[in-house]
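Data availability (excerpt). The following record was deposited with the supplementary files.
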Amino acid sequence: MGQSDRMLRRLLRKAAIVLVIFIVAGALLYSFGLRVVLDGGGIPHLQFVESANAQAEKIERHREGQRTTPAAAPTPGPAAAPSAESPGPVPVARAAPAAADPDPVLHSTYWSDFRGPSRDGHYREQPIRTSWPSGGLQPKWKQPSGAGYASFAVANGRAFTIEQRGAEEVVAAYDVATGRELWTNRWKARFSESMGGDGPRATPTWRDGRVYALGGQGELRALDDATGKQIWRTNILDDAGAENLMWGMSASPLVYRDSVIVLPGGNSGRSVAAYDLLTGKRLWSALDDRQGYSSPQLATIGGVEQVLVFSASRLMGITPDRGELLWEYPWKTQYDVNASQPLVIGDNHVFLSTGYGSGAAVIELTQDGGKFSVREVWRNIRMKNQFTSSILLDGYIYGLDESILACVDAETGQLKWKGGRYGYGQTLLASGHLIVITEQGELVLVRATPERHEEIAKFPAIEGKTWNHPAMAGGILLIRNGAEMAAFDLRPPAR
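Predicted structure:
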């Protein structure tokens, strides 16, 4: 055997040893939870991820600790007998607020809907604190959360969300002041896909003592807001004969008068459906669209009350009582992903935006004799809301253009500025300022001005990939992702 052959064999042995070391090390790291995780732009990152069962066990230990720690003046809620098919609520002792307590969050029903009362991400209830300490705000509370991308609906001191805990979807109510879990209602279901991960996506909606929650696989439940007891249930995908979307049911239920409107996306007139608030009986269904990931939104345009629906292929206005089509504006995107909320501008203009290079547009709707005509005012790629939504203030639109914050003129579409690499996070507007929750779980305060990007404060708030929208009521900011949730008091200091 020649010298070159011996050298080759030695190199091959070394390469084999190195390969074995990499395989063993990789297997060991995998066993400790190292995974390839995709960000909102589809870029892979290595990250340690807790298993679903381990996460569920950690949450249960934490909540059990809450249950065994007495709350002030506990008032146990009534328990419902669970069944194997439909487990009932798990009530937890909680403090009963004094009737005369002046704390506004105990009485606020302002943020009882997805992205606020108009679904526009604008908090108008009261002024907030816009001077944040250099080291960041201290949370009122912080605790583990189940997986998923829902936000909170807040009413009367309770915050409602839906989470994935192991093999169950769980609607949970929390005390806003303390984070204490008040009740849960859960069922066997687990939506999972490789890019976004596990968990339900749609934010619950609160109305008049009831919570309407939609799971990732179409389970729709009406629950009593004080106890979590089930009032009625249906599966909107089964009822519509529809297949689930690639990234799951994501549209938050919309309450309109005596109905709750949802978007199952079935054909044969079952794309949009309305159910009776009290009984769950289907009242009507309409259209044949494959749905997107945007939530139905009530608006008045040209003096006509309507529901804006952003399906996989078009933005449209429909009547809220029967689902009849009033107008449409075609909008096709890659992967059929229309996920942002439209913005109503003035009396008869609407802004829409999507990612994957599609961009944004403003359309003008003219109503004459009950019929609408649609005119495109402008369209460009200066704002691309992939799965976030923009916000309007004083004629300017602020939002994440893919992963960078930007401002455009609503009248012309002209880009005013672009700055701040916040990833695929979410935004909220309050007191003339943007509150940005970044994809990495940081909270950022940015002055909402068309002059320039002016970042005032930034600090780490929660850990983990954060695609969930923030919520606010009574001056309390609530944030969460698939691992943690937290609350921050943004009320101005008392004078």
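Summary of structural features: Helices lie at 3-31, 52-68, 236-240.
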